[in-house]
Amino acid sequence: MLRKTIILLLLAGATALLYHCRPERSYIEESDAKLQFSLDTVYFDTIFTTVGTTTRSFRVYNPHSRFIKIDDIRLAGDSSVFRINVDGKPGKLFENYEIAPNDSMYVFVEATLDPNLPQDILRIQDSITFSVNGNLQDVDLVAWGQNVHMLRDSVLDYSTTWMADKPYLIIDYLLVDTLQELVIEEGVKIYMHRDAGIFVKGSLKMNGSLENPIVVQGDRLEREFQDDPGYPGQWFGIYFAPGSYSNVIDNALIINGTFGLWADSVVNFDAPVLTVKNTEINRMSYDGILGRGTTIEAVNTVIGDCGNSCVELLYEGSYSFNHCTLANYWPQWASNRKTPALYIANYFAIQDSPGEVIVVTRDIEKAEFTNSIVYGSRPNEILVSRSEEGLLNYKFDKVLAKLDATVYDYNFDPNFIGIISNEDPLFDSLRVSYELDSLSPAIDQGRLEYAIGADLDKKGDFRTADEAPDLGAFERIE
Known about the structure:
Elements: H1 2-21, E1 36-37, E2 41-44, E3 56-61, E4 68-75, E5 82-86, E6 89-91, E7 93-99, E8 104-111, E9 123-132, E10 135-144, E11 149-156, E12 160-162, E13 168-176, E14 181-185, E15 189-192, E16 197-200, E17 203-207, E18 214-218, H2 223-226, E19 237-240, E20 247-250, E21 252-255, E22 261-263, E23 274-277, E24 280-282, E25 289-299, E26 302-303, E27 311-322, E28 325-328, E29 342-345, E30 347-353, E31 356-361, E32 364-376, E33 382-385, E34 392-401, E35 416-417, E36 420-421, H3 448-451
Parallel strand pairs: 2-10, 11-13, 12-14, 13-15, 13-16, 14-17, 15-18, 16-19, 17-20, 18-21, 19-22, 20-23, 21-24, 22-25, 23-25, 24-26, 25-27, 26-28, 27-29, 27-32, 28-32, 29-33, 32-34, 34-35, 34-36
Antiparallel strand pairs: 1-3, 3-8, 4-7, 4-9, 5-6, 5-8, 9-10, 30-31
């Protein structure tokens, strides 16, 4: 009996010794040590009331060489239609989870739409938050109600018309194929998922109206993504490929993308490749309008805050902007904008080999800005960069502009006519509409000849009823 007791004591001591000798887990606690996820958004197709979705999943990774501790995992919404399961356990709140070095765990998600929700519900969103080392990370949960047209990786190899019966949601991309035409009627709302784009090889016609404009925006509908200053760069943009033709954007609101309109089409001097009228393009993380070797006509158009330029016109083409407002007050918190609101160049550079750059020059037949405003937060908001080997016919006639004479002294340039320089246009509200205040120096400063054919401003008010038309897209009506 004693012998047995001694053996047990020795085993217990050995076990205790092994336990105390086992190295303690080493946790990574630096604030920049974060989790990684296999998905940034768990997306559900159309959900019908009372019918649950299929189960979706994503993985949570610890990419570090030490253990990482997750303080809590939770559904952000108080009354969510989503249900989650973490590592085999259902619930809404999970605390003190650990992931071993270079290991992962699964999170499963389901959703059921509440039948008592309004009939016009479009989009339901929640998120799963992960609290780690003082950081809050999240994975979005997105579900759409039954009243939406959804297009994922879609190619329109036929001509069609979109009506405003239900909104359209574009996942990844929509391609209007060669020789096909997509007509979008007034009042249509188009929601673009993250990085989604509209690509046009054929023709796009957006026929909005003053009362029912067409809206193209990201699919993040939470207030913080919509209200001033909003979140630019949510989706790619609308791209017109070489060969695209007769595109018209009329009475549209295009916001929160990377590019607003990018025309990369073959020059056509008989008819514009792209016509833009009565439209607002705002909060783009790069360019509002980018034209490369194409023809663009714009009138009554507002191009607001952009991370690069409101309008960038490069090598070759013909461009006309009449009664337009370019107003770039890009917020500093987003990035430090170093480019002017308007940039024009008749050349481009190619990196031929390390240390060797080839400059290719092409003629710009026309770059004309009339009865317009080009202003913003930088000291100089117009830059015309010309290669002497090529043609660059530009004209600024009756334009209120932010200009720095140390960059370029426009006073000795006959292509700058009737310029009002460095006088604040006094917009009524920045980043919203850019209408003119009653004391704006742009009032009654336009030439009547440029207003003919553009008698109505962006809001439908007559600009030819008083002494002279105002500069920009809006006529001040007292």
